[in-house]
């Protein structure tokens, strides 16, 4: 295994703004009698939030697509059966997806369901995701108009093409304009990782032109990243406790992508 040592951490803080209604589904147990059919996930205070796992899964899948890994020979079966889950994993030493999101030892079956892949060069995950909590101020003005305390309810209908029977349903959504405070932590374990950080920003930009959560093809889940600030916490700062409170760069996602961030990591 390659020798790795923590050189520092890049921390991105900012907000995720819902530009259209956002639906990230909650557990079935959240459904109440008389409640909506499809509820959103909520925290212990009953407020909607964006799980770090949802953000991680979406950014990973978009980066896999961007790197050209969506083929039967580059995907493995994470879950087999009638509804398989396929993700990319490989032994390529410099694969950006495997380095950023981590790679475990083990035997896998490629998505062609025939070929076995043995992963022998495990590497730790570089990118950590925090749950993104709702900024209550962001929906203060529209809160009186919401159907529920923190969310809206969208009514939809599907029609059977033979019988014309209607199948109405209700879907709970976070309203347009809601903002969530998010944080990503990128571990730099070798000098080459500094250059790979640009892939994280690329995945974030891809997400802005895709969707988060469910029903993206029906207008849900368009988001934007805003008020971004990037902090660098070096190995020396962790040893001395003398952390800089100032970000190394601030601005929009486009402005961050145009900066040469690796040169700012001293």
Automatic annotation (TrEMBL):
Question: Which keywords has UniProt assigned to this entry?
Answer: Antiviral defense, Endonuclease, Hydrolase, Nuclease, RNA-binding
Alphabetical list of InterPro entries matching this protein: CRISPR-assoc_RAMP_Csm3 (IPR013412), CRISPR_Csm3_endoribonuclease (IPR052216), RAMP_III_fam (IPR005537)
Q: Which GO terms describe its biological process?
A: defense response to virus
Entry keyword annotation includes Zinc: no
UniProt keyword RNA-binding present: yes
Give the molecular function GO annotations. endonuclease activity; hydrolase activity; RNA binding
Q: What is this protein called?
A: CRISPR system Cms endoribonuclease Csm3
Q: Which organism is it from?
A: Carboxydothermus hydrogenoformans (strain ATCC BAA-161 / DSM 6008 / Z-2901)
The gene is: csm3
